[in-house]
């Protein structure tokens, strides 16, 4: 599903149950815990993948920085995509590995 959020509107909050991941088509978001920004993401980047993979609550909040248009992929649909498109699974692994390396640099 394509979803839209206005600037400064939360997409989801830390601690919520994660049932979908998002691929940014237009705009940008801020990933944060409270007032502390973790990272800003823009077009062609995704967020929300951790909760959809491990079924744990959201580890951070996400707020639109600019008006946002995103593709929202539900957990069930994501499972089907992964089963039929191995390149998507590799892409998600690459994103997670990159983010882990960046987090390690900041530590």
Task: Walk me through the structure.
Helix content is 35%, strand content 37%. By secondary structure, the chain is of the alpha+beta class. It starts with a strand and ends with a helix.
Helix coverage percent of residues?
Answer: 25-40%
Sketch the major β-sheet.
4 strands, antiparallel
Nearest-integer average pLDDT: 90
Shape: globular
Question: Count of helical segments?
Answer: 3
Distance between the termini: 36 Å
| Beta strands, count | 8
User: What would you call the structural class?
Assistant: alpha+beta
Computed CA radius of gyration, to the nearest angstrom: 13 Å
* Order of strands in the sheet with most strands: 1-8-3-6
Strand percentage: 35-45%
Which ranges are low-confidence, i.e. pLDDT below 50, for 5 or more consecutive residues? none
For this entry, what is the oligomeric state of its chains? single chain
Order of helices and strands: EEEEEEHEEHH
Helix-strand blueprint:
Elements: E1 2-5, E2 10-12, E3 20-26, E4 28-33, E5 36-42, E6 46-47, H1 49-54, E7 61-64, E8 68-74, H2 75-84, H3 86-106
Antiparallel strand pairs: 1-8, 2-7, 3-6, 3-8, 4-5, 4-7
Write a brief structural summary.
With 107 residues, the protein is of the alpha+beta class. 35% of the residues lie in helices and 37% in strands.
